[in-house]
Amino acid sequence: MLWTIFLLLNGLLILVLLYSTRTRRKNEPPLDKGLVPWLGHALEFGKDAAKFLSRMKAKHGDIFTVRVAGHYVTVLLDPNSFDEVINDTVRLDFARTRKQHLRQIFGLQLPSMEPTAQRRWMEQHFRGLCLSKLSSSMTGHLQSLLLSDHKDCGPSEWRQGGLFSLCYSLLFKAGYLTLFERRDNAEEVYNEFRKFDNLLNKVARDSLSREESKTVNSSREQLWKLLCPSWLSGGSETSSWQQSYSLFLQEQGVDAEMQKRALLLQLWTTQCNAGPAAFWLLGYLLTHPEAMEAIKSELRCLHFQENPTINPLESHSTPVLDSVLSETLRLTAAVMINREVVQEKTLLMSNGQRYRLRQGDRVCLFPFLSPQMDPEIHQDPQIFKYDRFLNEDNTPKDKFYKDGKILKYYTMPWGAGKNMCIGKEFAVTAIKQFVFLLLTHLDMEMCDPRDKLPPVNPTRYGFGMLQPDGDLRVRFRLKTKSYEM
Ligand code: HEM
């Protein structure tokens, strides 16, 4: 018995050593395995990916391979070379990693579903007439939630709260009511979802403590129950985005249990980014008075009194608000674009160098570091400049350069290529509408004018919009006269 254990351990040790003795071959990117066998840089990566990858960039340049929990990940940080990864759908694959994530995070398996079918369905439902119906329903819900939130307050009575909680809960609930059309449980779904969302990074990295694991499992179960509409369990309900999504899953041969679980995936995809984005945007405005003044003066020029049935944001362009949104997303959207190398590939960099990528490795683009925080592209990249995306004549600025070359990707909050955000237009409209409603209906100020924006939670890099570590205390009241700014 002892001998068997001894031999097994020896075998395991040899395997670990063999695996960790990988060396850099000719034409491969610089290799950095880290000191810990198998784990490599996993701990540093999970703790603060932006800090870790900045350190690697300073050491190795725009391309390097790191070992992370048994995987070799080639990180590419030159936006002029991104298309080599984004456009290669033959040698690089994203479906396998995605499937793994769906199973791990959402307990979801969709074996019968054609991989691109879901995306096609989503695209149909977030454009044209469907999009304008969804957007106007969203605006209606935002307005009524904002006003009903204040119905018990006297006319000039101030209320206090955290800006993040305010933005996340209002946008989440309005989005939920728009897409899921359930009026009875929005508050409960929001509270349960926040518990799940708070632990999402740990679920994805498989690093939950036993207690956290219990919380996630119970939240997930609870959300599956709360989201399950009566018509999935035999009843009937009005036709909604959610209902037509479930019908689509049925047509794809997805069973009732997986249909229920897929609703949580869609809740997360559609509701987890807009609230945090609105928080950062308003937070930057509150902490940068010159930006707030520029936005207010742009909004004052909109002729919203002319015809109250026409939405002023639809009938007027708002270049300053657009620039503020782009600048906010540049600073706080931190997606990672991951691919698996399914066939050996030679990657051609924009500087003419070629690198070999090994089959079985992973490739990762992290646009947050470059282009978004790259000082060669954006001067003083850590600083919020509300007019960064404006030309002098107030037209949108879309020409940025690196190494003298004009950039196709100068900010990438929405991802790129085949995985690009499908809800971009819906999200932009919703966030702008939310900011507009807040500024035109509420007086809002920081509880302590000396406060600063909270820092970002560094464990959320790679999961879309960043979230703050803490909140910004604000006080607000209904304006006595709407639209007076
Ligand atoms: C500020 C807000 C948002 C940001 C920054 C954002 C960003 C992103 C990014 C980066 C992706 C690609 C993810 C990947 O490569 O894995 C994505 C995908 C997607 N987003 Fe968004 N998003 C936002 C809001 C929304 C909203 C409001 C909706 C819908 C109501 C939405 C719907 C989707 C869908 C359906 C996908 C596709 C997922 C897939 O390919 O399966 N997004 N989003």
From TrEMBL:
The keyword Metal-binding applies. It comes from the Eukaryota. One of its GO terms (biological process) is prostaglandin biosynthetic process. GO terms for molecular function: heme binding; iron ion binding; monooxygenase activity; oxidoreductase activity, acting on paired donors, with incorporation or reduction of molecular oxygen; prostaglandin-I synthase activity. InterPro entries: Cyt_P450, Cyt_P450_CYP7A1-type. Residues 1-23 form the signal peptide. Its cofactor is heme. The keyword Signal applies. It is found in: Endoplasmic reticulum membrane; Membrane. Keywords: Endoplasmic reticulum, Heme, Iron, Membrane, Metal-binding, Signal, Transmembrane, Transmembrane helix. It is a single-pass membrane protein. Belongs to the cytochrome P450 family. This is Prostacyclin synthase-like.
